Amino acid sequence: MIVVEDLHKHFGGFHAVDGASLEIRAGSITGLIGPNGAGKTTLFNVIAGRLPPTSGRVMMAGQDVTGLPPHELFHRGLLRTFQIAHEFGSMTVRENLMMVPAAQSGETLWNCWFRRGAVAAEERKLREKADEVLDFLTITHLADEKASNISGGQKKLLELGRTMMVDAKIVFLDEVGAGVNRTLLNTIGDAIVRLNKERGYTFCVIEHDMDFIARLCDPVIVMAEGKVLAEGSADHIMENEAVIEAYLGTGLKNKAKVGA
Q1: Looking at CB atoms within 10 Å, which of 28, 114, 145, 156 has the fewest?
Q2: Is 14 helix (H, G, I), strand (E, B) or coil?
Q3: pTM score
Q4: What is the mean pLDDT of the chain?
Q5: Helices 241-248 and 252-259: crossing angle, nearest 10°?
Q6: What single-letter DSSP state applies at residue 144?
Q7: pLDDT band at 72 (very low <50, low <70, confident <90, very high)
Q8: pLDDT tens digits for 126-143?
């Protein structure tokens, strides 16, 4: 689905992504982990078109999409969420969902004046779709609530719901569990698994909660200092000496030396 080849992103002399190469297989829930400053979010931003790469290449479904802007990638089915949810606070939760699909007929003044019936029919379909998404995510009770009034975890669910309003092929989730209580995190995890199994969504997930990663993700890719450090199952990753060193600054070998 996504192949990243020798990707670099430099900010002056700082190499945020430094020759990263990886593959996100179609139909997978791939975890992306690493210490703070490892380059994970920058990698997401380059893949999703928010930042141009310094060098390297991003392929999607066999096509070169390097440097394409986010709106073009959106139309190809590549979507992402953010560490801090970006909702339209003055709109209801349902309205936040309904505004996602592009090229709606009601966006033009001509249609609003002379094709009111078509605009109204399309809006009814969008409302039905939004209500289906709300039901899937078990947040129907929030449909008419202002998005600014809901909790941080519910905003993360809302962001996930937005991806369901279009034909998403791959979704990049950036710290979906940040600031979310365990109950809501389990709800988010259940929704991700269902979307993957029932609707064929491919996910790549940045997350620091290793229990969440272990439950959802296979494979898990580890980044450190802008490079890919390791890849494998969650169990394999958590036993990897280089990963322990990167996260904790000390691994089994160093502990053995201290003990000796």
Answers
A1: 114
A2: strand
A3: 0.86
A4: 89
A5: 80
A6: T
A7: very high
A8: 999 999 999 999 999 999
**228 CA to centre of own chain:** 18
181's tokens? 């209580």
Strand, helix or coil for residue 118: helix
Return the CA Rg of the chain.
20
Residue 87 DSSP code:
-
CB 240, CB 246: distance < 8 Å:
no
For the stretch 184-243, pLDDT in tens is: 889 999 999 999 999 999 999 999 888 999 999 999 999 999 999 999 999 998 888 888
Q: How far is CA 11 from CA 35, 52, 54, 165, 226, in A?
A: 19, 11, 9, 35, 12
Average pLDDT over residues 113-127: 86
Q: Tell me how long the chain is.
A: 260
CA atoms within 13 A on the CB side of 68: 20
Predicted confidence (pLDDT) per residue in 73-102, tens digit = 999 999 998 888 888 889 999 999 999 888
Determine the residue type at 6: D
State the Cα torsion 238-243-246-251 to the nearest 10°.
80
Amino acid occupying residue 163: T
Residue with tokens 């002056």: 12
* Chain position carrying tokens 């998403």: 168
Q: Which of 178, 246, 185, 174 is nearest to 212 (CA)?
A: 185
Token pair in block for residue 141: 């009770």
Assigned token pair, 177: 């569990």
